[in-house]
Amino acid sequence: QVQLAESGGGLVQAGGSLRLSCAASGRAPSGRAFSSYAMGWFRQAPGKEREFVSTSSWSGGSTYYADSVKGRFTISRDNAKNTVYLQMNSLKPEDSAVYYCAAGTIATQRPYDYTYWGQGTQVTVSS
To answer: CB within 8 A of 107, min separation 6: which ones?
Structure first.
């Protein structure tokens, strides 16, 4: 079983930066390794649905972003460390949410395409 653990959340003022990390451990029943999974970041604010933030193909060669974070957030991955990152700059109060990382077979914006999910890390941006 693949386990994902997010870290790096916290409280930051508007305009500030945070870097989230998502460390993967374990292995899928199929034997598939972390390096073969697409990795995505999603977020969910209170009273709202979970929304797509960013995703990376297994190699990191293809990345996609929600329009709301494009130009401010950067996804990257280090397959040697089984870790994916989300660098968040120029944070806004509306970025406040619980951020989740997820692993799936393809890099899409659809949450249901992802098989494994972390527990989430809280990001709060004060104005």
So the answer is: 38, 39, 40, 55, 56, 57, 58, 62, 63, 64
Q: For residue 6, give the 3-state DSSP assignment.
A: strand
In terms of DSSP bridges, do strands 10-13 and 121-126 run parallel, antiparallel, or are they unpaired? parallel
Check: CB of residue 24 under 8 Å from CB of residue 35: no
pLDDT digits (tens, 9 = 90+) for 42-99: 999 999 999 999 999 988 889 999 999 999 999 999 999 999 999 999 999 999 999 9
Of 29, 45, 34, the residue nearest 84 (C-alpha)? 34
Decide: helix, strand or coil at residue 63: strand
CA distance 24 to 77: 11
CA atoms within 13 Å, Cβ hemisphere of 84: 31
Question: How far is residue 95's CA from residue 76's CA, in Å, rounded to a whole number?
Answer: 19
Q: Which two tokens stand for residue 9?
A: 């959340």
Say how far apart CA 113 and CA 97 lie, in whole Å. Answer: 21
Structure tokens at 100: 């989740």
